[in-house]
Amino acid sequence: MFGVRAKFLSILLVIFLSVVALSLNIIYLVGDGMSFNQLLLASILEGRVLTTMTLPYTAITTTYSYDSWVTDSAPAGTALFSGFKTLNRAIGVFPNGEPITSIFEIAKNGGYKIGLAVTCRVTHATPASVYGHVSNRDDELTLAKQLAESGTVDVVFGGGWQWFLPTANGGRRTDGMNLIELMKQKGYEYVNSIDGLKSASSDKVLGLFAASHLEPVSSRPSSQPTLDLMTTKALEILSKSGEPFMLMVEGSQIDWEAHSNDFYGVWKETVEFDNAVKVALEFAKKDGNTLVIVTGDHETGGLSLSKGGYSINVELARKAKGTTQMFLSQYNISDKEKFVQGIKDWYGISISDAEYETLRKVSSSNLRRELARFVSEKVGFGWTTWDHTAAPVPVYAFGPGAQYFVGFMDNTDIPKLILKLTGLSTIKFPVVSAAGN
Ligand SMILES: [Zn+2]
C-alpha cells in the first residue's frame, strides 16, 4: 500500500517538476556594445561592484557573424535570439533570406507571454531580432509592420512611433498604414507618456515614448522613462497572469556612446542598464522560477582601460559634467576662450593651443567623437575604433539553469540553452555533474 502511494506521489512529483520546467520565465538583458571593459569602466567610476557582476555564473562568448569576425547588431541579435549565424545587417533571416524562428516566437507558440523594453526605436536591430525578419536592418517600415501584424510581442516599450504612423499623422509611413490603430484593434493598450506607462493595466501594451530613440540617459527629459522603470512595468504586466514569460531588455545606447568614444556616456548608459539588471534580479530572487541572463551583443570602440603609465585618472573622470554631445550643445569651438574654459569646467582638462588648433580643424560632423576621444585619453581611457570589434563578451546568469552558462561559448549557444531549459526544445546538451560523467 505504501509502495503504491509512494509511486503515485513520485509520479505527481515528476508531473509537477516537468510543469515547473516548462514554465521557467526568462529575462534576457543585452547591453548593446557592452563587453568586459565597458562594465569595468562603469564599475570603476561608480566606485562599486555593479549588480551585473554579482550574478553567480559567468561564461564568455564569441560574437562573430556569418560573414565577418566583426558583427553588427543585426546578426548579433539574431544569433542571441535564434541560435543561428547570419549576414551582417540581416535580422531574423538565414543568409539565403529565409526566415529564422526566434526563441521568442517559439515561446509565444508555447504559451509564453513575450515582452521587450529598450531605449532605442523598437524597430532597431536588437529588439527587431525578437520578432522581425528582414535582410536589411534599415527596413524599419517593414519591421514595424511585422511587429504590429505578428502580435508576437505582448509588451513593447521603447521609442520610434514615427515608423508606426502615416505621414498624414506626423509619422514616416508612406503606405498610409496606422499601425498604432491596428495594434489597438488587436487588443493593445497604447501609451506614450510616463503616466500612461505607470497606469497601463492591460495584458498587451504598446508604449512608444519618442518619435525616434529615447534621449541618452545623461540628458533624457523627465517625460521619457528610464530602462529600469520600463523593466519594472513590463515584469508587472507579464507576470500577472501566472503564465510563463520571456522578456528582452536592451541597454541600447551603451553602443552609441562607445561609437562616439565617449567615456562619460558609456559610464552612464552602462549604469542605467545595470539598474534594469537589478530590477530583473530582484524579481527573479522573489519569484524563484526565473532565469536571468545578461550579456552584450558585441564590443564597441575597442575600449582600453588605460592609455599607459599604469594609471587611470579616476578622480578626474568622475568630475566630468556630461557627454561631449551635451558639451557641444552649449559651447562653440569657434569661440576659443569660452571653449577652452568650458573644457576646463566640464572635464577639468587644460587644453593647449596646439590641441585646440587640432580640434578646430576637425569637421563639425566628427567633432563630437574626436573631442570625446581626446577627453577620454586625457583621463586615461583609450579607444581603437569608432566601430565594433571582435572582442568576446561576458555572459552572466542567475536562477534555475544558470549553472549551464559557464566556460567559453558562442553567442548562438545561449538561445539553445534557453530552449532546452524552458522545455521548448529537445536539443541535447551536456549534463553538468560533480562526478564529471
Ligand atoms: Zn549592437
Describe how the helices and strands are arranged.
Layout: H1 2-22, E1 25-31, H2 36-46, E2 57-62, H3 73-82, H4 103-109, E3 113-121, H5 125-131, H6 140-150, E4 155-159, H7 179-185, E5 189-191, H8 194-199, E6 205-208, H9 227-239, E7 245-251, H10 254-259, H11 263-287, E8 290-296, E9 299-300, H12 314-318, H13 324-328, H14 336-347, H15 353-360, H16 364-379, E10 388-389, E11 393-398, E12 407-410, H17 413-422
Parallel strand pairs: 1-7, 1-8, 2-12, 3-4, 3-7, 4-6, 5-6
Antiparallel strand pairs: 2-11, 8-11, 9-10
Helix pairs in contact: 2-11, 3-5, 3-17, 6-7, 9-11
This protein binds zinc ion.
Write structural notes for this entry.
There is one protein chain. With 437 residues, this protein is α/β, with parallel strands linked by helices. It folds into two domains: 23-303 and 386-422, 3-Layer(aba) Sandwich (Alkaline Phosphatase, subunit A); 314-379, no CATH class. 41% of the residues lie in helices and 14% in strands. The protein contains 17 helices and twelve strands. The protein has helices at 2-22, 36-46, 73-82, 103-109, 125-131, 140-150, 179-185, 194-199, 227-239, 254-259, 263-287, 314-318, 324-328, 336-347, 353-360, 364-379, 413-422; strands at residues 25-31, 57-62, 113-121, 155-159, 189-191, 205-208, 245-251, 290-296, 299-300, 388-389, 393-398, 407-410. The strands form two sheets. Strands 5-6-4-3-7-1-8-11-2-12 form a ten-stranded mixed sheet, with helices on both faces. Strands 9-10 form a two-stranded antiparallel sheet. The longest helix has 25 residues, at 263-287. 50% of the residues are buried. Zinc ion binds at residues 32-33, 73, 76, 255, 297-298. The site of zinc ion has 7 residues, from helix 3.
